[in-house]
């Protein structure tokens, strides 16, 4: 058993967004994205692992509104199960050729922004015509990398460690259907 007990973390955390409110915000984002991509078929890149539940929910909301997506995924991590970030490690790069394509990245959180900054730069190096970012959550602080801003945002979370809805507490709790913030 891990030293980092999920039940204890939940005792020491506040529920900040429940499933209903998150799904409502994701549906709201989907309306904007569908309007912005009318007539297009973007490459939809899920940023694993944390982006998975959000990307799936958003994809369904987009499909319901008539926007088709070409699915692929990537895995780049800099937290590796810890609660503070380090250097970015690429574990999987997408196989889909990005040259000339509109790319939509779907991830759970923009915290300090280093992860999505590097991923966006790599997609542009591959020749993507455009790269946009959809993030379920952005963290409210002034430590974000300059020039990194999500194009579509679900909710703003406080400057505390958050978990649930894809985000892990020491690799646990990703499938909690809500967002919690540690006290
Ligand atoms: O804005 P940043 O400070 O760079 O942090 C945000 C990134 O950190 C998390 O990934 P993590 O490295 O934990 O990998 P994981 O998704 O596999 O948990 C999260 O999913 C984002 O991709």
Automatic annotation (TrEMBL):
The keyword Transferase applies. GO terms for cellular component: cytosol. It is an enzyme of class 2 (transferase). GO terms for molecular function: hypoxanthine phosphoribosyltransferase activity; magnesium ion binding. It catalyses: GMP + diphosphate = guanine + 5-phospho-alpha-D-ribose 1-diphosphate; IMP + diphosphate = hypoxanthine + 5-phospho-alpha-D-ribose 1-diphosphate. One of its GO terms (biological process) is guanine salvage. Residues 16-143 form the Phosphoribosyltransferase domain. Keywords: Glycosyltransferase, Transferase. Its EC number is 2.4.2.8. This is Hypoxanthine phosphoribosyltransferase. It comes from Lysobacter enzymogenes. The lineage of its organism: Bacteria, Pseudomonadati, Pseudomonadota, Gammaproteobacteria, Lysobacterales.
